[in-house]
């Protein structure tokens, strides 16, 4: 396995594990075992995006996937990207499902510590992921990855049409997910304004990642122009 593919595999594992680990909290809320359902859903959404639970930076899985998929896709044709990408995603899902209990226990403990709304004894009895939860996690990953690759193609060809596919996929994603993009984006903006060091570091990381990806694209274009 090439290094870029290995990096992408690890990034996908991180991404999927964070998404899968948060679902049991939502299931408990749906069952009425956590009384404050909206609080549980909001916490799960923010935990997925690294915005609660003592993550060192926001959006860790998204950052990892964005950078790794950008450089991985540079050397592949569209068919190779689809075929190899789906294979890596399947492998990442299998590993993430194995790691999910550890992540689920961690978020349950952090949720209890910060809100007091779940007993620590319940951590050992956390529910498993549902089929729809697994589907949402994988579809979110694919939508984000397709969006990154589409931006790369649009920049390389100087055309907007490649962005049509992720646009449609994002419309579908907005309809099937229980959280909204505005929640974590508004939270990030507000935390940055409030001089939260993690929010500021994450914003700097986002800008730095974009610069690195652009420089990598230009260097690759010069070599293969």
Outline the structure in words.
This protein has helices spanning 3-31, 37-48, 60-73, 78-115, 131-157, 164-176, 181-193, 197-224. The chain has 8 helices and no strands. The radius of gyration is 18 Å and the shape is globular. It has one domain (3-224). With 225 residues, it is mainly α. Helix 1 runs antiparallel to helix 2, helix 1 (3-31) packs across helix 5 (131-157) and helix 7 crosses helix 8 (197-224). The model has no long low-confidence stretch (mean pLDDT 89).
TL;DR?
By secondary structure, the protein is an all-alpha fold.
List keywords for this structure.
mainly alpha; 8 helices; 225 residues
Amount of beta strand: under 5%
Which structural class do the helices and strands define?
mainly alpha
Shape: globular
- What pattern of helices and strands is seen along the backbone? HHHHHHHH
Number of strands: 0
How many helices? The count is 8
Distance between the termini: 26 Å
Low-confidence stretches: none
Rg over C-alpha atoms, rounded to the nearest angstrom: 18 Å
Helix content: over 70%
Overall structural domain count = 1
The average pLDDT score comes to 89
- Biggest sheet overview: none
């Amino acid at each position: 396995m090439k290094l870029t593919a290995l990096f992408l595999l690890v990034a996908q594992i991180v991404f999927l594990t964070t998404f899968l680990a948060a679902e049991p909290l939502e299931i408990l809320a749906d069952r009425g075992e956590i009384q404050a359902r909206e609080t549980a859903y909001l916490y799960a959404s923010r935990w997925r995006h690294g915005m609660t639970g003592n993550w060192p930076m926001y959006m860790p899985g998204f950052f990892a996937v964005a950078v790794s998929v950008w450089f991985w896709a540079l050397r592949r044709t569209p068919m190779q990207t689809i075929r190899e990408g789906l294979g890596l995603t399947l492998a990442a899902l299998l590993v993430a499902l194995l790691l999910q209990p550890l992540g689920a226990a961690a978020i349950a403990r952090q949720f209890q510590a910060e809100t007091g709304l779940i007993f620590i004894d319940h951590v050992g009895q956390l529910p498993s992921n549902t089929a729809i939860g697994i589907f949402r996690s994988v579809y979110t990953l694919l939508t984000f990855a397709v969006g990154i690759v589409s931006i790369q193609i649009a920049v390389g060809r100087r055309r907007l049409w490649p962005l049509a596919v992720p646009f449609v996929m994002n419309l579908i994603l907005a309809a099937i997910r229980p959280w909204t993009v505005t929640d974590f984006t508004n939270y990030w903006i507000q935390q940055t304004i409030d001089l939260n060091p993690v929010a500021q570091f994450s914003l700097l990381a986002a800008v730095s990642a974009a610069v690195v990806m652009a420089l990598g694209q230009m260097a690759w274009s010069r070599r293969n122009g």
